[in-house]
Amino acid sequence: MTEQDMKVLFSREQIAREIERLGREISADYTGREIMLIGVLKGSFLFVADLIRELQVPAVIDFVRLASYGSGTQSSGIIEFRKELEMPIKGRDVIIVEDIVDSGFTLECLYNKLLLQNPNSLKICTLIDKRARREVDIDADYVGITMEDGFIVGYGLDYDEKYRDLPDIYIVE
Ligand code: IMP
Ligand code: MG
Q: How far is the CA of 14 from the centre of ligand 1 (A)?
């Protein structure tokens, strides 16, 4: 894969606009409460950083690290926890912040695990909702951008650990 195979699909301006909108929606839904954001590393690191600054309600943050991909582009369905939560979530209003939902295996696994820890509420926010390859029945409560299919990189998303630093999101042809 070379840079010639990549085309901008979602610009930094579009990404910023959608995150502003998500910030408004979430802030309206959580008025008077404190949110706990749980970022799913590594892909969501830029999204979480931008989203938390668009919130008009207080928010605390923690991270988990999950891995389902080897170095290919297809989910294995086997999810490995490489970093656990550090803060208790019992009684908290929790929002999982994902970069992209594809098959849905990663989210389902994390969602069910967190639910067992008795948060007051548990919702899902994803920057990208990729619909075509969904294997489990799980839907995000807050969606930045919807797409059908295709492999994307940039703005936190990688191919073999590369391209996370790009400010725009590119489709790989
Ligand atoms: P799922 O378990 O198949 O939903 O996979 C979700 C994870 O796979 C995401 O959190 C990403 O880290 C990764 N992923 C899925 N699609 C893409 C993509 O198009 N580009 C980069 N990473 C992806
Ligand atoms: Mg991810």
A: 20
- The domain that holds 127 is classified in CATH as 3.40.50.2020
Structure confidence at residue 58 (pLDDT): 98
Among the bound ligands, the one closest to the CA of 44: 2
> Which two three-digit tokens encode residue 162?
């590369």
Query: What is the C-alpha radius of gyration for the chain, rounded to an integer number of angstroms?
Result: 15
Domain that holds residue 63: 12-70+77-149
Give average pLDDT by consecutive 10-residue segment, the chain, 173 residues: 87 98 98 98 97 98 84 68 93 98 92 96 98 92 97 96 97 93
CA 4–ligand 2 middle distance (angstroms): 25
